[in-house]
Amino acid sequence: MAAGGPGGSGSGERERSIGYEFVSEEIAREAAASLDRRFSERKLTGLRVYRIVWNGNFLVEAAFSASATEAELTAARALLGESGTPVHPDDLEDYKRAAPGGGFGDWFRRFFRSY
């Protein structure tokens, strides 16, 4: 994951985050792994999975650098939308604040890069 994590890449670029909700952890992890395989670290600068406390579902948050094109964001939305439901950006922030421990964190990306 790029320096600065979601919300800032450390290079002055503004990242854009998208979030999708999934009914199970397995489906959320599969979707996150697909994104991780498809996009370079330069484009996909952050990838996290959160458990949504109030309904038990899971949220995949993907942060893209400012250099990611609209076509790439559309492709990411389509991939996540195959089995997930889009989350409004304001709700994404609420979900992140409510996640115990702030979600799974950076290790998730490192885990998938090890294969």
Describe, in plain words, how this protein is organized in 3D.
There is one protein chain. This protein is α+β, with helices and mostly antiparallel strands and about 120 residues long. It has one domain: 2-Layer Sandwich (Alpha-Beta Plaits), CATH 3.30.70. It has helices at about 25-40, 70-80, 90-100, 105-115, and strands at about 15-20, 45-50, 60-65, 85. Strand 2 and strand 3 form a beta hairpin. The chain starts with 15 loop residues before the first strand and ends with a helix. About 30% of the residues are buried. Mean pLDDT is about 80; it is low at about 1-10 and about 105-115.
Using DSSP, what is the number of strands? 4
Which consecutive residue ranges, at least 5 long each, have pLDDT under 50?
1-12, 103-115
- Strand/helix succession: EHEEHEHH
The fraction of residues assigned to DSSP E strands is: 15-25%
What's the structural domain tally? 1
CATH superfamily: Ribosomal protein S6/Translation elongation factor EF1B
Helical coverage, percent range: 25-40%
Cα end-to-end separation: 16 Å
State the helix count.
4
CATH-defined fold name = Alpha-Beta Plaits
Structural class: alpha+beta
| Largest sheet: spatial strand order | 2-3-1-4
Assigned CATH class: Alpha Beta
pLDDT average, as an integer? Answer: 79
Gyration radius (Cα, Å) is 13 Å
Main sheet: strands, sense, barrel: 4 strands, antiparallel
| Gross geometry | globular
> What would CATH call the architecture?
2-Layer Sandwich
